[in-house]
Amino acid sequence: MLTKYTEYLIHQEWMSCALELAKVAGDAGEVPVGAVIIDSTGKLLAQGENRKERDKDPTAHAEILALKTAATTLQNWHLNECTLYVTLEPCPMCAGAILQARVGQLVYGVDDTKTGAIRTVINIPDSAASNHGLQVIGGILESACREQLQAWFATRRRRVN
């Protein structure tokens, strides 16, 4: 059995990986969001970064891409033994996909005060519309996730003005 401190260190490690993916997305002109999915043994199954602009696909969010890859890797859409790490609180579309995939645990970095659908704006996992008990941990490497997003948006605003 892992201690709470050991679990926290593991969460930080995987969120750091998601932050690296978010940087790749940001450097490519995408909103910097990254996601990784691990299995119950701690093995990396999938990763994703925002690709909406590059793929010309409104569903190409980091979480969706990681979910698709994990399901393909496992040859099973039931991801109830998996943990999804994502740098930004998922939007309604991604929250729905996470629930449909039966992800066991969601760990996210920073709240999304505009479209957060896990705890901040709406709470889809705990709503009557949810058919799955999702374990949620928010705030892992919160400052780093927030700073990355704020810096990216500040740079974009400077380019526009």
UniProtKB/TrEMBL annotation:
Cofactor requirement: Zn(2+)
Coiled coil: none
EC number: 3.5.4.33
Active-site positions on this chain: 63 (proton donor)
Catalytic activity as recorded in UniProt: adenosine(34) in tRNA + H2O + H(+) = inosine(34) in tRNA + NH4(+)
Record SUPFAM superfamilies: Cytidine deaminase-like
One MF annotation (Gene Ontology) recorded for this entry: zinc ion binding
Cofactor note: Binds 1 zinc ion per subunit.
Residue numbers binding Zn(2+): 61, 91, 94
Classification via InterPro entries: APOBEC/CMP_deaminase_Zn-bd, CMP_dCMP_dom, Cytidine_deaminase-like, MafB19-deam, tRNA_aden_deaminase
CMP/dCMP-type deaminase domain mapped to chain residues: 9-121
UniProt keyword list: Hydrolase, Metal-binding, tRNA processing, Zinc
Gene3D superfamilies xrefs: Cytidine Deaminase, domain 2
GO biological process terms, semicolon-separated: tRNA wobble adenosine to inosine editing
Physiological role: Catalyzes the deamination of adenosine to inosine at the wobble position 34 of tRNA(Arg2).
Quaternary structure and interacting proteins, as annotated: Homodimer.
Protein family: Belongs to the cytidine and deoxycytidylate deaminase family. ADAT2 subfamily.
Annotated protein name in UniProt: tRNA-specific adenosine deaminase
Native source species: Nostoc punctiforme (strain ATCC 29133 / PCC 73102)
